[in-house]
Structure formats: C-alpha cells, structure tokens
Input
Amino acid sequence: MSREGIAIFVLKVSLSSSPKKLSGERARLQLVVLNHKSIHSIGDVPQFANLVRGVHEVDLAWNKISNWKEVSTMLKHLPQLRIFNLSHNNLESDLGDVEIPHCPHLDTLILNGTNLSLDCIRKVARQMPVLHELHLSQNNFDPDYFDSESAGPSGEGKENGAISDSVSLIHLNRCRISR
Output
C-alpha cells in the first residue's frame, strides 16, 4: 500500500471509528499524520498507548507541543517508531529533568523550525542509537556555537563532540549559519 493510502486509512479510521474499534485495528496503523491540529498533549495515555503500539511514523508538525514531558510520554508508547516529525512546534529548549526514553528503532528525527539549542538536540539524540537522519532546517542557531575557538559566547556551557555518533545526514537549510 502506498504512503498516501495509509494516510487516508488513518484519517478515515480516526474520523469515523470509536477508540475501541481503533484498538482492534492497531496492527494496521503504521502512520499517523496530524499537522496543524493545535495539539499540545496526548490526552488519555492508556488509550494513546493502545492505539499507537505498531506505529512506525508520526508527523506532528505545526502543532502546539512545547513540553518535553509530553514528547517523552509519546516516545515511551511508540516502541516501533522509526520517523518522528516535531517540526514547527514551540518546544522548550531545555529538557529540565525530563528523561527522553531509549528509542531503539528511530532513524529519522525532524526538528525543523523548533529553534532548539544544539545541546538540547544532542541530549535527545543520545537516546536514539540508530539515528541516521536529522532535519534541523529553519532554525536560528547561535553562530557562536560553531566557533571552534570557544565553547560559546561566554566560553562555557557548550558540550563538546558530535550531536550523535550514528547520524550521517543532517539537513541545515535556512539556518543562517555564516561560518
């Protein structure tokens, strides 16, 4: 089945079926696309977990997700997740005490237009051992972060090293990096 067919199935099921019926269909549910829906939380966690157990790709771009605790809860209940798109959500740049769960299958993370710090992105990526592709376009990174002579504007606060040892493709379009 083509990607378009799966998306149509997801939309038809989510609009016309009860949560109970959806849970019986969860083995077929592999793609969830909910763009521009003003989503800020997942709501009923047990129901969410039951519905998304077999999902491989989640696209929640252009929503109102800001809290890393919500993202962490989502990831805990998406054991088969391979592609996760949180582009253009107003995510907090600091994880605080939130622990991102281990994501053993996630190989593509899309964080376009989130304006997260590279330190935050590094902390998230550490939990994704097979992360291959990272989308960071349309972000306003601090140009001093890329200065190899210092650790940042004050010379402190920046962790050294790669974002991830497994990432081999990073998209950095329209990030205003001039060095």
